[in-house]
């Protein structure tokens, strides 16, 4: 489901699909093919696939990033994507679920959890500040010695890039799980 978003910010689509038992290999090939097709679209900024750990419920989660909302919308509504979704119908159970996020919201989404409104902004800011502070300290402590011979701009680029990767793929998903009840108090009900 697409909605109105800030045109200038990067956007992430979280797509989940449940694969029919016995079709995992065909789905993996389909996933490679549709990823190549998506990569041809303007603004495509990468894709990550989270494969199922529980083979009794083989849900794949695809994290698709575009440089801004209009380019994502162009891909989502394209005939090329519709073609690939038609090819996936025999491989998946039901229909796909799509959630579109922008900004910090993408860090506070857990695969397998029902779609819901993002946490309060002050909670996202607090948790993000703590995470960035800790990751900056750790990355700086362990890697700054290796980078001392590089120009300052390159040191910063390496440290920031490493911090963002750690935050996006390791730290924020784990912090979101740990603080889930605080971030989403309505989930207790």
From TrEMBL:
Per the UniProt record, which residue ranges are transmembrane?
Answer: 124-146, 152-172
Any idea which UniProt keywords this protein has?
A: Membrane, Monooxygenase, Oxidoreductase, Transmembrane, Transmembrane helix
Q: Which InterPro entries match?
A: ABM_predict (IPR038762), Dimeric_a/b-barrel (IPR011008)
Protein name according to UniProt: Antibiotic biosynthesis monooxygenase
Instruction: Please tell me the species this chain comes from.
Output: Phormidesmis priestleyi ULC007
Which PANTHER family does the entry mention?
SLR1162 PROTEIN (PTHR40057:SF1)
Write one Gene Ontology MF term: monooxygenase activity
Q: What is the lineage of its organism?
A: Bacteria, Bacillati, Cyanobacteriota, Cyanophyceae, Leptolyngbyales
Domain of life, per UniProt, equals Bacteria
């Amino acid at each position: 489901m697409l909605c109105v978003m800030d045109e200038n910010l990067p956007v992430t689509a979280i797509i989940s699909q449940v694969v029919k038992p016995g079709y995992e290999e065909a789905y993996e090939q389909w996933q490679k093919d549709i990823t190549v097709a998506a990569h041809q679209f303007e603004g495509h900024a990468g894709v990550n696939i989270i494969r199922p750990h529980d083979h009794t419920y083989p849900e794949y989660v695809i994290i698709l990033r575009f440089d801004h909302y209009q380019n994502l919308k162009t891909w989502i509504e394209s005939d090329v994507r519709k073609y690939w979704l038609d090819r996936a119908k025999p491989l998946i159970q039901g229909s796909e679920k799509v959630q579109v996020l922008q900004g910090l919201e993408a860090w506070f989404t857990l695969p397998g959890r029902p779609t819901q409104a993002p946490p309060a902004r002050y909670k996202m800011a607090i948790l993000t500040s703590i995470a960035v502070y800790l990751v900056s300290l750790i990355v700086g402590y362990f890697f700054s010695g290796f980078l001392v011979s590089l120009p300052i701009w390159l040191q910063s680029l390496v440290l920031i890039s490493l911090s963002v990767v750690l935050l996006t793929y390791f730290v924020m998903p784990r912090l979101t799980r740990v603080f889930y009840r605080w971030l989403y108090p309505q989930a207790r009900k």
